Amino acid sequence: MLIRAALGVLLAVFATTTSASPRAQDESPAPPLTVDLTEKVEVRILQMEVTAWPKDGEVARCRELTAGDFEVKVMGRVREVLAADRLGDLGRVLTDPGDPATAAADLPMQYVIVFDMWHLNMWFDYFMEGGAPEPIQTLQFSFSWVREMLEERFRPGDRVLLATFAGQSEARIFTPWLEDRAAALRALDDMEVDPTLKPAQQRHAHDTSWFEAWKTLLEALGNVPGRKHLIYLGDDWRPEWSPGARGQIPLVGARAQKNHVLIQVVDVLAPWRAYPAIRGVGLADPAINAQLATVSGGHFFGGGMTVSRAVKMLRRLQGCQFLLSVGALPRDMRKNGIRIHARILRKGFRLDAPERIEDPRRGATEEEKRQALFLFQEWGRGLFAQARLWPLRPTGMKDHWSALLMARVRNTGTEIWTTDIDEVVINAGAYRRSKVFGEYREVLRGDELTAFLSSERGRAFMFPVEVRSGEVTVTVTASATGTNISANSRTHFSVPKPPDPGEIHPWFLVDRIIRVGDELSLAPATRGDFPEDRPPLLLGYGCAPETGDLFPGAGRLVRQGDMAHRALPVAWLDGESQGKQGTPKKLAGCGWVVSKVEPPLAPGVWDFYPPLFDDSEGDGAPGWPALTFRINTDAEGSAMTSP
What angle do CA 349, 355, 361 make, to 5 degrees? Predict the structure, then answer.
């Protein structure tokens, strides 16, 4: 914006004459000479979202606040606050003449619930190893608290989206925007036991890609209008445990502000912070989680605050949330974010404000923008697409696996499907950068297309593919020929190295038999709900220990909540022992192991801890849960017969 200051300089020219020159005295003065001097000053408008907290709890007082009540420093220099607008979650400026406390509390809210599977249940081992008097089950607490919030606080007009960090480098949006409480609760139940979202133990050797996943998720949310409250649920940890974390946290906050996202952190570790084991690692007080909230202008809800209570407070404070417009100069712009320091001048308030915002001309890279677009693409126009990969068994070549690629597609019912549509084309593939592991194509026509459109469950396609250990990208694209009805899915999977002697991985829930080519195969379950009388089979691939013991022994099933448990015998699957004919030499002593859960199994959410071949520590600790599933009286049964 250009501010032009016109400076007029008036020069009066007077003729000086003697008294003997009456004619000169009668002449009129010459016209004034005007010289225009123009100064150009370029000013850029920076916008940031802040929340004013009345110390006495009277949110109606926020209506009195104006731009003059805020002071903002940009790169250490005070800049003028041009405007302070009270902005509702869906982008509307609040101008209600009535009581803002009542009017704002009735406005719809948008919240994104992020379950950080990469960091939840980080401290569970402290209980299993005897270092804590009761289970540190932050994963279970998180789902319980969100379920409570949806039941108590979800109102007509609200929108909620469920997301996760399912791996160190991947953010995943699990649902589209949901506006119905019942649909949100069903999605939450599905997410809790989704076989592809089991938590991974994280030792914090390296978190760079986790921060990159943060920025990609925030960039994706920026494509949605209005303010978004991102409610983060993850275990706390100290920044010094991960190189570079201190420098990355402000960049996450800057990306959040640019995309109108306020990171609200609910302290799921609060009930256990007093434990000696937790205090001993320096987490008696909030660490990185508090920083994630403050750098974005969000709030850290500690002291045993639940998700439901946090949302209640955020709803009341909608009338106290402001969009500040601040004038800045070109020299304030910085590639790594613009440092901000905002404070409220009026007494009786405190302020949640960001510490840094992105330069609007820079920000996300082209690759981050591309990845952000794919996060929402599973829910396209009229179609839903999902990509999954299961590494089934090593081939005997170094780091090579025989795997199954699943492409699942269904009709969402959100488009008018006409009789003019002749076919739906599905393309799937597995890649690592420029390396193509496999590409596949299926076309639905005629009766197959009719059956597909009439089915609520859609259609799943299984393709055999050979992949290598490491990160593999799996894509699925579905489109109705000649229309704009389409959906895309791109998901990153971390394929493990083949198991060493004494190891069993990966593990799968198995609920059916499928045909792949000319062979029958056990198929991994795509859902985590099972009926009481037909619990799943648990299938893993392992190698016998070097001691020569051919039988893995027993694992353990533990029910979340009350910690009820039962031993679960695990044995080699018939024909899969080390003596199987045709087994590569490198895989001698390796094969499928299976555990059958004898019915009935009581309802609830169950974790499976695999057996340990090597218990050199002698503590009998069951390690890390490999699988999670729910026994549900309402679950549909499977027609599979066990081997």
Answer: 130
